[in-house]
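Q: Protein A?
A:
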Amino acid sequence: RAGGAPVCVCEFQPALHISQPTVSHHLKQLTEAGLLLREKRGTFAYFRLAPGALDRISSLLAEQPALTNVA
């Protein structure tokens, strides 16, 4: 979303075509890794990227050796 606006957990499941428990599991993992911030609003949870999350991911990927296509 533009401007880093939080996204409701209820929006992920239809967009990703995976089950709600699977979405919740992965969002929890990303939150515990410090990549997402979680905000509870009533019965729904909203997620947004944590500050610096994309920079952290980019630096981790840059440290990895190039992947090659192995036939």
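Q: Protein B?
A:
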Amino acid sequence: QLVALLRRPEGATIAQMVAATGWQAHSVRSLISAVLRKKLGLHIVSEKVEGERLYRIDDQAPAAMEMAEAQ
């Protein structure tokens, strides 16, 4: 569910992800950091647009390759 939101071209805000899951904001941020970035190796882009922080998956720059090169 969250991955689908993050794969949209416009991405998703923490508030949108909280509304979609019913989770607390810190749980959503933890999932992004620990599971999506580190375990699944997805490249999550975070940008501030019109005062809101948006998160989205950037399939053009896989984090798994970056992490493998760093090790």
